Amino acid sequence: MTTHLLIPFVLGGSIALALWLTSIRRSRTKGVRAREGKLVGVDGRQWGKWEPVDWKYPPVRPWDDFDLETTKPPPYRAFKYQHLTTMGIRSMPFDEWFEVDNQFPTYLRLRQDRYRTRGRKVCQTLPGAELAARELCLSIAEYTTQRYPALFKVSRRGKGWFGEDEIREVEVLGLGVRWDFDQEDPMAVAGLMVQDDLAVMMEGGDGMYYFKAGFVALAGSWRLEDKIGRDLRYIHMSGDVPEYMSKLDMSMNRFFQKLRLEKPVARNNYTFVRGSELAWETSAKGPEDLFDQLAKGPSTKALRQAGLEPSEPADPSEIWLRQERQTLRRLPRSGAVVFTVHSYLEPIVDMLDEPGVPGRMASTVRSWKGDVYKHKNGELYHSLLPCLDAQHAKQVAAGVTVEGKASHEYPY
Questions:
Q1: For the chain, what is the HEC assignment?
Q2: Cα gap 102→89, rounded to integer Å
Q3: How many Å apart are CA 280 and CA 266, to the nearest integer?
Q4: Could you check whether the bond before residue 411 is cis, i.e. omega within 30 degrees of 0?
Q5: CA angle 381, 386, 389 (to 5 degrees)
Q6: Cα distance between residue 34 and residue 19, in whole Å
């Protein structure tokens, strides 16, 4: 499983978030006080209570010459020479909330199929999260139609939340897809408008953040049905995030508590997988419906009943790089924190000629230690090393790259 999310947020998400937050570790009690027997945070707000904020989103700069056919996925290479347990976050301009590329039609078809065939296993809104789901849906519709006017078109009615007339319907131009906001599940529409998986986290009266609504169709190695309704601690502990309780637990939750409306953030992470299984990594995790999240996979008996065998070390030609671009932002009306995950898949063999990439990749694999090695299923991917080392040696000899010198700007 990758080092990621919250949600996992495992990831597909799970370790991710965890990693963001080691740098903001705090004590378990600092900044917390009681008011009339109820816990409140440093801003004096009672936990679990949020007053809607009349906050205007910054203008989104239109990508006027966006071309769906020619816009390729960003060439992320989100690994460093040394794997560190502090993966940096960066400020995210509002223009960059969601990335759309020429894989959008493929992702849309896959997400539609997953929602049609799996329903509540990929999309849910728990009681109390209805406002947050609708707010997220409208926020995404406002963003996509402003950022990608050549791809998205809306029809409106009466005054809405954002200073414009409220969106009633969204159409994806050229793809024959249209959503009526009066007739369809807001959480489902939100999840189909973009290539990202979505998780809506809401603060409880105990100050913890809970996974209350989401559309999770392409996570690869974790399932919404196992995480929905759970708090950050359970989400990460069930994902075996290395050193979570000792280093990350309280700092992560405080990060969520203090996340400001005007300060959205982004990060990238990576993992290796076997093959191009975007929605679910059957080759590593077994059949999706046989997956046991506590065992981190199906039993050997269940695998063999399904006609499969436990995974063996992978041949380099079978290994793909799975990367995620993740964002976090707070919604002003509901106070929910939205976690987004855009997953990208590329075969390793396609990047062996990129300057500096083989050496950097080999170095990061070798730097996995202990729980990180286990979490990333390192034993399956060490077969990469001879291939990467050989290609790196060729690049050094040819003067294409310099030993130990970074020739890139993270996360590329």
A1: CCCCCCECEECCCHHHHHHHHHHHCCCCCCCCEEECCEEECCCCCECCCCCCCCCCCCCCCCCCCCCCCCCCCCCCCCCCCCCCCCCCCEECCHHHCCCCCCCHHHHHHHHHHHHHHHHHHCEEECCCCHHHHHHHHHHHHHHHHHHCCCCEEEEEEEECCCCCEEEEEEEECCCCEEEECCCCCHHHHHHHHCCCEEEEEEECCCCCEEEEEEECCCCECCCHHHHCCCEHHHHHHCCCCCCHHHHHHHHHHHHHHHCCCCCCEEEEEEEEEECCCCCECHHHHCCHHHCCCCCCCCCHHHHHHCCCCCCCCCCHHHEEEEEEEEEEEECCCCCCEEEEEEEEEEEHHHHCCCCCHHHHHHHHHHCCCHHHHHHCCHHHCCCHHHHHHHHHHHHHHCCCCCCCCCCCCCCC
A2: 26
A3: 24
A4: yes
A5: 110
A6: 30
CA pair distance 220, 240, nearest whole angstrom: 16
Residues 327 and 99: their CA atoms lie apart, in Å, by 11
Q: Are 380 and 313 in contact (CB under 8 A)?
A: yes
Residue 36's pLDDT is: 45
Q: How far apart are the first and last CA of the chain?
A: 21
pLDDT tens digits in sequence order for the chain, 412 residues long: 333 344 333 334 444 444 444 443 333 334 444 444 455 655 678 899 999 998 888 889 999 999 999 999 999 998 888 776 554 789 999 999 999 999 999 999 999 999 999 999 999 999 999 999 999 999 999 999 999 999 999 999 876 665 668 899 999 999 999 999 999 999 999 999 999 999 999 999 999 999 999 999 999 989 999 999 999 888 877 766 655 665 666 778 888 999 999 999 999 988 888 889 999 988 778 889 988 877 666 656 556 666 666 566 678 888 999 999 999 999 999 999 999 999 999 999 999 999 999 999 999 899 988 878 877 778 777 788 999 999 999 999 999 988 877 667 778 8
Instruction: Name the residue among 114, 164, 111 with its Cα closest to residue 139.
Output: 164
User: Which amino acid belongs to residue 285?
Assistant: K
